[in-house]
Design brief:
Layout (H helix, E strand, L loop, with lengths): L2 H33 L2 H15 L5 H24 L5 H23 L16 H21 L12 H21 L20 H4 L5 E7 L2 E6 L12 E7 L28 H5 L4 E7 L10 H13 L3 E6 L3 H11 L4 E4 L2 H7 L5 E6 L2 E7 L24 H39 L5
Parallel strand pairs: 4-5, 5-6
Antiparallel strand pairs: 1-2, 1-3, 4-7, 7-8
Helix pairs in contact: 1-3, 1-5, 1-6, 2-3, 3-6, 4-5, 6-12
């Protein structure tokens, strides 16, 4: 091989490794940030399908979210480690052949504000997403041609083990993120954040709302300063839209979002009244009241009893209609006040339907899905305000699972390098200590 061929071969080798790292790393990152917050991915899927007019069952949709997270992460790991060097780039290219026209449609039609490909961790515009996918597609094409020229980190005999470990890790991460809360919280309402700025009542006019009313099948929007129509004239309230938000000027523990609570009819802002009555409050959040099962009422009632013993006030916040609220009251017989809020704002605070948030002096102390709360622990005594009584710490769970995953993945890597180290040592011995004739 002449010098020019040697240089070209080295350049190809280096570029192959660079593209393998970039393409594989993107898939790993995309799958991981979706998996730690599967509820966020679920909401994004629902937005897409609503824009297409294709409603899908919740169970089927969350299964699709799990499958996408596992697929992206595992494919990324396979590319990074050089597993299945022929098939992995082909799968990546097939994926991009699907994603490229999809993201082009999203960029042109703009059905959602962002694609959600990197969850809430990193939000990019729809056109940036499309051009990013163009680059990834070109990398996949390169790897199909040259990936065999770069070495593999895990030997072919043990590659299946790395894939199985990655599959199991992602499945557990998805399950924990869905059952509890995002294992890493990138949203504005983290634990330790003040839900409502202390000066929020002074800044309420800085947020622009539009109220939608309907009469004879025709809908009309009214601004916050407009005179709202009289329901006795045949108008019915449909929804309220938030047109803008302000950044709180308070100290760093306050959210830069504006969360407002409204009366049951959705016409009167009662944020200060609802959240300022008690030093300790338990919020029951139901972004979709119609989908809350009647079987949850017994746990909600047990949770209310527990909160009362902890001297905590319970209020419910939902995006439900007045009819849905009345149906809920007939079914659950609640002993707590029910307010309304925008479903998007409710979903930003906590994941789950229902979700539970504990406030202490207006600051989020902990949050959880109702499904993950152990009803038996609600009867624990002498554990006032301690989250460990009824919930699991998501960040600690992620650390433990990731540590276990790294240790398990290190096994096939170490087994793959043992023969290489032995061969390198043998070559060194032969070179340094040649046998005498």
């Amino acid at each position: 091989m002449n010098k020019a061929d040697s240089t070209a071969s080295r350049i190809i080798y280096i570029l192959t490794w660079i593209f393998r790292i970039l393409l594989g790393g993107t898939f790993v990152f995309s799958g991981f940030v979706k998996a730690i917050d599967p509820w966020g991915s679920l909401y994004k899927f629902e937005e897409y399908l609503a824009a297409m007019g294709m409603p899908v069952l919740h169970t089927l949709l969350i299964t699709g979210v799990f499958a996408l997270c596992v697929y992206e992460f595992t494919l990324g790991v396979s590319l990074l480690l050089g597993c299945y060097r022929r098939s992995s780039p082909i799968l990546a290219l097939l994926t991009m052949c699907f994603m490229l026209p999809l993201t082009l449609w999203i960029a042109i039609s703009d059905p959602v504000s962002d694609c959600g490909c990197f969850g809430d961790f990193f939000i990019i515009s729809n056109w940036s997403t499309f051009w990013k996918n163009v680059i990834l597609t070109l990398m996949a094409v390169w790897l199909i041609k040259f990936n065999l020229r770069a070495t593999t980190i895990i030997s072919p005999a043990f590659q299946w083990l790395g894939i199985v470990v990655s599959l199991a890790y992602m499945m557990v991460i998805c399950f924990c993120g869905y059952l509890f809360q995002p294992l890493l919280d990138f949203r504005p309402y983290k634990a330790g954040t003040r839900l409502i700025a202390q000066n929020s009542h002074e800044d309420v006019n800085e947020v622009d709302y539009v109220f939608v009313y309907e009469k004879d099948g025709q809908r009309k929007e009214f601004g916050i300063d407009d005179e709202l129509p009289d329901e006795n004239d045949g108008w019915s309230f449909v929804e309220r839209k938030q047109k803008g938000s302000h950044k709180s000027g308070a100290e760093g523990t306050e959210s830069d979002k504006t969360f407002r609570i409204w009366s049951r009819d959705g016409e009167e802002d009662v944020t200060d009244e609802a959240l300022g009555r008690s030093d300790c409050q338990l919020l029951l959040l139901m972004p979709s009241m119609a989908e809350v099962s009647a079987a949850t009422t017994w746990k909600i009632n047990a949770l209310q009893e527990w909160a009362t013993e902890q001297e905590s006030e319970v209020i419910a916040v939902t995006d439900g209609t007045q009819e849905q609220i009345r149906n809920w009251e007939e079914m659950a017989l609640p002993d707590y006040d029910i307010y309304t809020a925008d479903d998007t704002a409710i979903k930003e605070i906590a994941r789950g339907n229902p979700a539970v948030v504990m406030l202490k002096d207006g600051i989020i102390e902990w949050k959880s899905t109702l499904a993950s709360i152990d009803a038996d622990k609600l009867e624990a005594e002498g554990e006032k305000y301690k989250p460990s009584v009824i919930i699991t710490n998501p960040s600690d769970t992620l650390k433990r699972l990731t540590l276990i995953y790294i240790m398990c993945l290190a096994v096939p890597v170490a087994m793959s390098f043992m023969p290489r180290i032995r061969n390198a040592y043998s070559a060194y011995r032969k070179k340094s200590f040649p046998k005498s004739e």
